[in-house]
Write a structure and sequence with these properties.
This protein has 2 domains: 130 residues, no CATH class; 132 residues, Immunoglobulin-like. The model has no long low-confidence stretch (mean pLDDT 82). A hairpin with a 4-residue loop joins β5 and β6. The longest helix is centred in the middle third of the chain and has 89 residues. Helices cover 55% and strands 24% of the residues. α1 packs parallel to α3 and α2 runs antiparallel to α3. The protein is an alpha+beta fold. The chain is built from 3 helices and 10 strands, in the order αααββββββββββ.
């Protein structure tokens, strides 16, 4: 019987010990849960504080930038651009504040936004200062412009009078030039030296021998034009130039600048025309044979060539030549 009572006591003691241990465990577990809850509540409080600070800093930044606006549209566009950059940054920070793990980074970004706003304001002040300086310079320029405009206007009447005088003189000069040109053309016409016995012949060079006269275009290397001057008492003795035009069967003037070709004015028509070659001579109011040649190896074609001789801008002699 005594043994049975001891066993009961032992069981009671074990039960009490177990209960005590369970109570200790539950107490410890509840304590940890309370700590976790307090930690999470603290994090939520900090997140809400950070959100509130973000909104406050953003609203203050926008307000400060709006206060910087003026009637300068370009400056206002810069401010609107800065506000948009702040809005984008605010949204980025708001995304970070959705998780307490990003709280430290979010706070850093909020400070960065504040610093950026200060930089924006400094930039706007700098631009305002520059605009003010430019405005002062522009005002000075406007004053100077007004002064110069007055000076120009005061001289406008003088210039108008001078322009009228200049125009009158210009017209008189133009008329004199026309009269002179007409007189020169009359003089040239009167002193142009007619030529006779115009003859043209094709030749081929021969080594060590005189050139050979040819009739075939394929063999021709140059064309020589000869003529005789006539007596013109209106012409003073001295050097005279005769311009030779060799016109091929297709109507084109044979012209090679490197071979002495060029252009002259036809005083009869007033147009500029090409010439093939030039012949010069010392004229003494007498009949004199003059020759000139145009070299164009292998480039002559078959057919009839028109030959024209010009002196002082006037046609003074012609002939034709045929190559087979």
């Amino acid at each position: 019987m005594a043994t049975s009572n001891q066993n009961v006591k032992a069981l009671v003691i074990i039960a009490l010990v177990g209960l005590f241990g369970l109570n200790v465990y539950q107490f410890a577990n509840n304590s940890n849960l309370q700590k976790d809850n307090l930690s999470k509540e603290n994090e939520l409080v900090q997140l809400e504080d950070a959100k509130a600070k973000l909104d406050k800093e953003y609203q203050q930044s926008v307000s400060d930038l709006n206060d910087m606006k003026t009637n300068n549209e370009e400056l206002n566009r810069v401010i609107d651009s800065q506000k948009e950059e702040l809005r984008i940054q605010k949204e980025k920070i708001g995304g970070l504040l959705k998780d307490s793990k990003n709280l430290a980074l979010a706070r850093k970004e909020i400070e960065s936004m504040k610093t950026k706003t200060q930089d924006y304001i400094a930039e706007i002040n700098r631009l305002k200062s520059e605009n003010a300086e430019l405005s002062t310079q522009n005002s000075s320029l406007q004053t100077e412009k007004a002064k110069l405009t007055h000076e120009v206007e005061s001289k406008s009447a003088e210039n108008q009078q001078l322009s009228e005088v200049k125009e009158t003189l210009s017209k008189e000069k133009e008329n004199l030039n026309k009269e002179k040109e007409l007189l020169d053309r009359k003089v040239n016409r009167a002193t142009a030296i007619p030529v006779v016995k115009v003859d043209a012949e094709a030749y081929r060079e021969r080594e060590g021998k005189s050139p050979k006269s040819v009739s075939k275009a394929a063999e021709a290397e140059f064309i020589e034009v000869c003529f005789k001057t006539t007596i013109n008492k209106n012409t003073e003795a001295g050097a005279e130039k005769f311009y030779l035009r060799i016109i091929n069967p297709t109507g084109e003037t044979q012209s090679i600048e490197s071979e002495g070709s060029g252009v002259i004015r036809n005083d009869q028509t007033g147009e500029t025309i090409k010439y093939s070659a030039m012949a010069t001579t010392q004229y003494s109011n007498d009949e004199k044979k003059v020759c000139g040649k145009f070299k164009n190896p292998g480039a002559f074609t078959s057919g009839v060539y028109q030959i024209e001789v010009f002196n002082k801008g006037y046609l003074v002699g012609t002939t034709t030549m045929k190559l087979k």
